[in-house]
Amino acid sequence: MFQSYGLNQTVMRIFKRTGIGYEKGGRPFMKEAHFASLVKTGFLAGAAIVLACALMLFPKEALDASTRGLEMWWHVVFPSLLPFFIVSELLIGFGVVSFIGVLLEPLMRPLFSVPGIGGFVWAMGLASGNPAGAKLAVRMRQQKKVTRIEGERLAAFTNSSNPLFIFGAIAVGFFHDAALGMVLAIAHYGGNVLVGLSMRFYGVSETDERSRSKKGLQLTDAFLLLHEERLKDGRTLGKLLGDAVRSSIQTLLLIGGFIILFSVLNQMLSLLGVLSLVAFAVQQLFSLVGLPPELAKPFLAGLFEITIGAEQISSTDGVSIWFQLIVVSFILGFGGFSVQAQVASILTESDLRFRPFFFARFLHGVFAALLAALLFQPLYKPNAHETGSFGANAPALFGERIWEWLAAYGGMITLCALLYFIFANARVLLRETD
User: Residue limits of the Nucleoside transporter/FeoB GTPase Gate domain (predicted)?
Assistant: First the structure.
């Protein structure tokens, strides 16, 4: 009897936490919101169990997928992003961001409805690639330089693939055609501009404090503001540099974990047949819009991880390069769930919401695909890489050389940076224990 009473009390506590109660007739009922939460919990737990079982069933394939993701992060992602992350932290600490913000206010405010510092975030996001734009948007929000709505607008349109990846990896590495780089780049960054122009209307109905505009300030005022920001920061050059390196490496370790995770997840879903089932539905959709159904499965792979999808799309036989370029442009704009998971993790450091970013990524994919379809004929010169002329082919050739350099020396840069990170953290821990 007492055991039964104790069990009933336990059940009642569980019901209370999950929103379950009793009607007068004694039948249990549950609010709709609580039921949806329970379904979500069950789905996530079930997905985790299935993934764990898949890892036990296919250990070799999981190791291979993990190794592919690690190699990409080790040789390319880490060494290519680390300098930009460090420099951006230094520019913020020295007050250069505020200086640029004053100068770009007349441009960024009317076009994108964000402060002038958005120009700095946009430029650094374009140069360094995903997810630098979101990281800098969060930093601007943490320092109260943007409002919540402005921060979400910034994160939405300042994330993009960097030129090195587009020209070096996609155009030259996968398609073996440097002339495609310019078409992909213009479609990708043009789509980014269209996303920014569209997102300026986001949040206009919400009550949100406006960040102070600096219209009318002169160049001397901008320089004085730069000086004030540096004094306000207060850190010495050595301290600022050390903090910049440690913060950048921590973010890149997080990015590496997501790249490896989604590389393995994509492989497991393929082995379990899940991608094949979803690919059948995508094939029907592709047929409706006039795209070859052969690109459905590579497209799904690209939704998880850009690099894997782009490589599979470029190696699909019997498909026109025009269709390949459209689909690649979409997944480059969409960013892949791997990049979006990285951004979602970074956004949790502030009050910026993920939903506007996800919507903007879909919008970017659509805009980039449409621009690629329209610009392919006038911009693509299939024999441009054979002429050796400087012109439009120069960025692709430069990207190819940088890509080869990273493949040769990127791993050494990563190793040295990680050794420094371990040594610096060890010194901090030893000081704290003394």
Answer: 76-167, 253-346
